[in-house]
Specification:
370 residues; mainly alpha; two-stranded antiparallel ribbon; 12 helices; 5% strand
């Protein structure tokens, strides 16, 4: 019996000596030891017994060299997006995050920036696309059968192809469309005559529609021939004030109306590829005449140099009702001022730095709609 006790004590001493230092040679005296399965008893949490390398191997817990920045390691060693719940089920809302080996957000942003730099004509289209995709909730999709989206079909197909080929594994389509619109705003503002460089905040987490190629939801868009655009922006997107809604209308400083798309024809100001305050300057500095729209049964307000305003635009300055035609005219000076909004028009025409700040604030509210 005494011999057995001595042998047992010797074995125990050897074990304790072997465990007295970790792999880095540092003392581990006083640390509770785990068995070779990495557990304390039967109820202890599983963990690696020794930290063999800082990055962690397949069974390790430390470091992130094997998993992406936005990923975590499951107990079995597999990397999964952090946005998944502990059972590995994707979160009900938001992007699942990038897959292993997928491009990260910085890489995707560089792709978008280069794509916009290739063709400035894409700037107004992307700002319009993000607005249309956010009507009903920013899900990255539009109904290509809707007459309201007729002018966006070609651009939207380009966007889908770019996302599928370059970014699908790293970002949802819903977030990708908002990223494109965000960068288009930045590009448009920094062009010659614009308010200058701006950084517009971008966040992920939007959920895409189920099938972008067969999106059949129908939404009501503000109509150019009507005068309720400000009320639409405030009620639909939660824009909290008329001033911010008037600022968001400044998106019309980009692009032109084409007869084949909307039935209206002309540009709002003389810098249609620059996102600036010229929209408000154009509105205030022109005598507008009522003319028949070339491609529909409605009217528009026209200048003699190819510029135009829709009823939705000029109603920010002038107060009139619309039946089949505006209730005043035939020139804009015969219509009284719109006391609700004309002061905002003057404010933004005189200070485009102020307008740019208000526009970005309203834009961020719009793209946060789920």
């Amino acid at each position: 019996m005494r011999l057995q006790v001595v042998i047992a004590a010797s074995v125990l001493a050897v074990i304790l000596i072997g465990l007295s230092t970790d792999v880095d040679g540092q003392s581990t005296r006083g640390v509770r030891r785990r068995n070779r399965f990495g557990r304390i008893g039967r109820t202890g949490r599983s963990r690696s017994r020794t930290r063999l390398r800082s990055g962690g191997g397949r069974g390790g817990r430390g470091g992130s060299s094997s998993c992406g920045e936005n990923q975590r390691r499951k107990r079995g060693g597999r990397c999964v997006p952090k946005s998944q719940d502990p059972k590995g089920v994707p979160a009900k809302k938001g992007s699942m995050g990038p897959l292993p080996g997928a491009p990260n957000l910085n890489e995707i942003t560089s792709i978008v920036t280069r794509w916009l730099d290739e063709n400035a004509e894409r700037i107004p289209n992307m700002v319009q696309l993000v607005f249309h995709s956010c009507v009903g909730g920013c899900d990255g999709c539009i109904n290509t059968n809707s007459p309201s989206n007729k002018g966006l079909i070609g651009s939207y197909r380009e966007v889908q192809a770019l996302w599928k080929n370059e970014a699908k594994q790293g970002i949802s389509l819903a977030d990708f469309v908002v990223l494109l619109g965000t960068k288009a705003v930045e590009h448009g503002m920094r062009r010659n005559g614009g308010p200058g460089p701006r950084t517009v905040e971008f966040t992920t987490g939007r959920t895409s529609c189920r099938d972008p190629t067969n999106y059949l939801k129908v939404f009501n868009f503000p109509k150019g021939q009507n005068t309720d655009a400000i009320e639409f922006l405030m009620s639909h997107f939660g824009i909290p004030s008329r001033g911010l809604a008037v600022a968001l209308m400044g998106a019309h400083s980009l692009g032109v109306c084409r007869t084949e798309n909307s039935g209206f024809e002309g540009r709002w100001d003389n810098t249609p590829l620059t996102l600036d305050g010229a929209y408000y300057e154009s509105m205030l500095g022109t005598t507008w005449s009522i003319t028949d729209a070339p491609g529909n049964e409605f009217t528009q307000w026209s200048a003699n140099d190819g510029r135009m305003m829709l009823n939705a635009d000029l109603h920010l300055q002038r107060d009139f009702a619309v039946n089949s035609r505006p209730s005043c005219g035939p020139i804009s000076e015969r219509c009284p001022e719109n006391g609700n909004d004309v002061n905002f028009v003057r404010q933004f025409a005189n200070n485009q730095q102020d307008w740019a700040a208000q526009f970005i604030r309203a834009f961020l509210i719009m793209v946060s709609k789920r």
